[in-house]
Amino acid sequence: MFSRLSLLVSSIHILLLAAPPFTSALGTSCTAPLTTGTAAPQDPYWLETIKHQGISAFNPDPSTYQVFRNVKDFGATGDGVTDDTDAINAAMSTGDRCGGGTCGSSTITPAIVYFPPGTYLVSAPINTYYYTQMIGDAKRPPRLLADSSFEGKAVIDADPYMADGSQWFINQNNFYRSVRNLIIDLRQMPTTAPAIGLHWQVSQATSLINVVVEMSKENGTQHQGLYMENGSGGFMGDIVFNGGMNGIYVGNQQFTVRNITVNDAVVAIAVPWNWAGWTWQGVSINNCTVRIPLALPGPAHLQSKGQGVGSEAIIDAVVMDTEVFVSTTTPVNSSLGGSLILNNIVLHNVPVAVGVQDGEVVLKGTNDTTCIQSWAQGNVYHGTDGQPVFTQGSIPGPVKAGNLLDSEGRIFGKSHPQYADYALDQIVSVRSMGATGDGVTDDTTALQKVFDEYAGCKLIFFDAGTYYITDTLIIPAGSQVAGEAWSVIMGGGSKFQDESKPRAVVQVGEACPSNFLGITDIVFTTRGPAPGAIVVEWNVHEPVGVQGGAGMWDSYIRIGGAAGTDLQLAECPAGSQSPNCMAAFMSLHLTQGSSAYLEGTWAWTADHDMEDPQLRQINVFTGRGLLSESLGPVWLIGTAEHAALYQYNLNGAESHWIGLAQTETPYYQPVPQAPAPYSINKKYADPTFEGTVGRAWALYVQRSWSITLFGGGFYSFFQNYSTACLTNVSCQAQIFNVDDASTIQVYGFSTVGTDYQLSIDQKGIIDEASNPTGFQQSFAAWTRW
Ligand SMILES: *[C@@H]1O[C@H](CO)[C@@H](O)[C@H](O)[C@H]1NC(C)=O
Ligand SMILES: *[C@@H]1O[C@H](CO)[C@@H](O)[C@H](O)[C@H]1NC(C)=O
Ligand SMILES: *[C@@H]1O[C@H](CO)[C@@H](O)[C@H](O)[C@H]1NC(C)=O
Ligand SMILES: *[C@@H]1O[C@H](CO)[C@@H](O)[C@H](O)[C@H]1NC(C)=O
Ligand SMILES: *[C@@H]1O[C@H](CO)[C@@H](O)[C@H](O)[C@H]1NC(C)=O
Ligand SMILES: *[C@@H]1O[C@H](CO)[C@@H](O)[C@H](O)[C@H]1NC(C)=O
Ligand SMILES: *[C@@H]1O[C@H](CO)[C@@H](O)[C@H](O)[C@H]1NC(C)=O
Ligand SMILES: *[C@@H]1O[C@H](CO)[C@@H](O)[C@H](O)[C@H]1NC(C)=O
Fold it and tell me: Is the pLDDT of residue 197 over 80?
């Protein structure tokens, strides 16, 4: 808990920040600001009718490779009667795409597989290829109807199994997938069929948005809405599961879920295993038998590793007419069982809040209404003594800054904007305006001209492509930007070479005006070397009273490891230390006057070459991950990996909600030791490294207040590419430092491979030895006071 004084100070800051007037710097060709969509109700979604001229710049044949595929152009009928399976799979696979068991990853065959309104009957799985967005009409979401004779694992399969048991993709590298605006209907299949809506065995840079799965509600139903046996995700939100044996079954290293509803399932959410844990934000469960059975110690294939659940952190849930809210498979009477955090939970007619399967009741519910303010199971810590207290009971909950909450006191959330009601004349295409996206031509001037003319009055559409820029692109506050299958903005050239004078590739807003801003489906990157590049500098604050008004969804910062970056296997093989592989000064900088809502923002420095058939490891050096100096509000639902100095650095930051944060220390360290190959730059509040002995910090907190980390997984797997250090959990000494002047509240937290899980002023406080929970070490909560 932090002091009232800091709360007060923080709200004063917020008021001061809100004071600058709403700046409405409209583009020069604008007549009026873009406020509401003007499409007629019967118009198709603009994504269907906009001119399709996206390209894949580094495809062997960019002039013929088709990015956007309307399934009807491939023969699908959407009439609910004709079998559309082959047509949809043709739309998915045409163009020598990456998948089928012969290609493990690639960025050069991106696609949108688009579904106009209708009902698409399918009799076999739709196998999704690498780098695919499956998008339904956002106004009238189409239905994928599984035929009664459906055969195969799942209606949508993100990682198909082959006859020999191997899979198309390595589950931890299964990046770049999104499914949006689709209803999957299993109800024609026999109740007893092991039907699955989505086999979603995925990693980072993946999302589900606005997806519904309809299942049988008959006694004995075997249907499952979503099945995920492993992976390293990820984000999903605005999802609904009706009926079924399991609403969802989810085992994955880590994940963030926002706004999930499960109705009428036997088991709402089944959790076989995880490491760092899962953060659940906004959960609604109705009429299920059990909400979450936590598998402890885990299913057979993991039992030998002692792998159960590291952590589950659940906030803002409403559960109705359900027998048991959370149930564990075995009694948990020590921290070995992983941690469970409950915050702001309302139960209506839920007799058992937390219980053991067929056993004791740990926390009672009632047949009336029960409210759980803040409850934990697992080791709880306070202050500097490092003594764990195993707790199964109420704990002080996070003190949440008011500007992070919605009108009902829940953590505010905002869905990925899809601009469903925009008319075509409200959208301007950057290719139509002269940018090429060909990965070669310098598009700086052409892109800047589009923003200068249309910022604030048109949705600026980045047709698929790689837009190479050689100087800072300014995205003015007020802009709305949408990519197509992750359009790439790539900075390179002489302006980004000076590490001592770093320069933004993309500068979002100038001097922190208060205005709307939204960016979706863009990848930001560099062409190496670019040791002076700040890939994204964020300077915009949401307008007064418009929470989440400045945000980014399903947009990633990706450095190296992809075609066109000059930071691949050929240039930067593992173990090499080429100055030409210094790829960026920093991934993302949130400046002091900014606010940000970042959902599914993965800032990744490539550890392997995605275009290499063997996915071989590479040494690409990014100086810094995410630096936030923002006074808030900031919602951070993302991950950061492999920067040399740190993954997250909070400096003078306030009012941040972070859930879940996942990080990995660079695999090459300590060869060279952090900060090498970069130098310390005090202007950017760089940390020092006494505590880590030359390794990157996962999270470094300086003079920051009102920060809640609700779910964290900080991993250090390697020393100079060797995992021998994992045996003794000693790949690095420290990983997470808080200075004595900061108040950060930590819940549902796990680490891998580090001696100390948390340090104050670079003195180790929480020893991992107290918290073994499997491959990872976990504790339930730490607060400073
Ligand atoms: C469901 O089926 C089982 C097994 O057939 C049976 O024992 C049980 O009574 C049935 N429950 C309901 C509510 O029909
Ligand atoms: C992923 O899950 C499958 C099915 O449970 C299991 O056979 C496989 O070993 C798992 N893979 C990894 C890498 O954990
Ligand atoms: C939650 O998801 C549902 C279903 O997509 C949607 O209707 C609702 O608006 C979402 N709520 C929030 C707060 O995002
Ligand atoms: C509760 O779920 C059961 C089984 O799924 C279903 O048969 C019943 O109609 C549901 N009750 C309500 C009130 O929705
Ligand atoms: C925990 O529970 C197990 C199983 O009921 C029991 O064998 C063990 O003695 C208990 N340990 C403690 C510390 O209570
Ligand atoms: C609720 O529980 C109380 C006490 O156990 C019991 O008397 C009452 O009948 C129950 N009400 C319902 C609706 O089940
Ligand atoms: C790092 O590992 C490589 C490959 O195993 C080895 O050749 C090299 O000597 C190691 N470097 C150091 C400093 O340990
Ligand atoms: C781990 O610790 C044991 C016992 O201290 C030691 O024998 C072993 O060499 C260590 N292993 C590694 C990989 O450091």
Answer: yes
Ligand that comes closest to the CA of residue 192: 1
CA angle, corner 260, sides to 254 and 261, nearest 5? Answer: 140
Spell out the residues 6+ positions from residue 611 whose beta carbon is closer than 8 angstroms to its own.
105, 106, 107, 108, 561, 562, 563, 568
The segment(s) of the chain belonging to CATH 2.160.20.10 are 97-236, 413-550+573-596
**Closest C-alpha to ligand 3, atom 10:** 238
Tell me the two tokens of residue 317: 């849930």
- pTM over 0.90, yes/no: yes
**pLDDT digit string (tens) for 663-697?**
999 999 999 999 999 999 999 999 999 999 999 99
Q: In which element (H, E) is residue 5 found?
A: helix 4-18
How far is the CA of 691 from the CAs of 56, 205, 762, in angstroms? 45, 31, 5
Q: Which DSSP string corresponds to 553-613?
A: ES-EEEESSSTTSS-STTTSBTT---GGGEEEEEEEEE-TT--EEEEEEEEEE-SB-TTST
Phi-psi region of 589 (alpha: psi -120 to 50; beta: other; left: phi over 0): beta
| DSSP-based three-state secondary structure for 425 | helix
pLDDT above 50 (res 323): yes
For ligand 2, is residue 767 a contact (CB within 6 Å)?
A: no
Question: Of the candidates 630, 636, 548, which has an alpha carbon nearest to the alpha carbon of residue 590?
Answer: 630
* Closest alpha carbon to 723 in 763, 673, 766, 775: 775
What are the counts of helices (DSSP H) followed by strands (DSSP E) for the chain?
5, 48
Confidence band, pLDDT 50/70/90 cuts, at residue 290: confident
Cα 743 to the chain's mean position, in Å? 25
**Separation of 658 CA from ligand 3 center, angstroms?**
20
Please tell me the residue having the least CA distance from ligand 1 atom 9: 219
* Residue nearest to ligand 5 atom 1, measured at CA: 333
Question: What is the rounded CA–CA span in Å between residue 251 and residue 241?
Answer: 17
20 pLDDT higher than 60: no
Instruction: DSSP for 50-111, please give it.
Output: S------TTSS-TTT---EEEGGGGT---EEEEE-HHHHHHHHHTTT-S-TTS-S--SSS-E
| Other Cβ atoms within 10 Å of 725 Cβ, number | 17
The pLDDT confidence band at residue 344, using thresholds 50, 70 and 90, is very high
Q: Which of 727, 729, 732 to mutate to test the pocket of ligand 8 (most atoms within 8 A of CB)?
A: 727
Distance separating alpha carbons of residues 663 and 409, to the nearest angstrom: 29
Amino acid at 240: V
Q: What is the pLDDT of residue 510?
A: 87
- DSSP symbol at 614: T
When pLDDT is cut at 50, 70 and 90, the band that residue 306 belongs to is low
For the domain spanning 97-236, the CATH number is 2.160.20.10
Tell me the percentage of the chain whose pLDDT exceeds 70: 95
* Strands 339-356 and 311-320, sheet pairing: parallel
Confidence of residue 24 (pLDDT cuts 50, 70, 90): low
- Ligand 2 lined by 301 (C-beta under 6 Å): yes
**Ligand 3 proximity of 415 Cβ (cutoff 6 Å):** yes
Q: For ligand 8, say whether the CB of 724 is within 6 Å of any of its atoms.
A: yes
Pocket test for ligand 4, best of 241, 287, 319 (most atoms within 8 A of CB): 287
Q: Which ligand is nearest to the CA of 721?
A: 7
Contact 103 CB / ligand 7 (< 6 Å) = no
663: left (phi over 0), alpha (psi -120 to 50) or beta: beta
- The fold of 413-550+573-596 is Pectate Lyase C-like (2.160.20)
- Structure token pair of residue 665: 């220390």
Of the pLDDT bands very low, low, confident and very high (cuts 50, 70, 90), residue 296 is: low
3-state secondary structure of 386: coil
SS3 content of the chain, % helix, strand, coil (to 5): 10, 45, 50
The pairing of strands 654-658 and 427-429 is unpaired
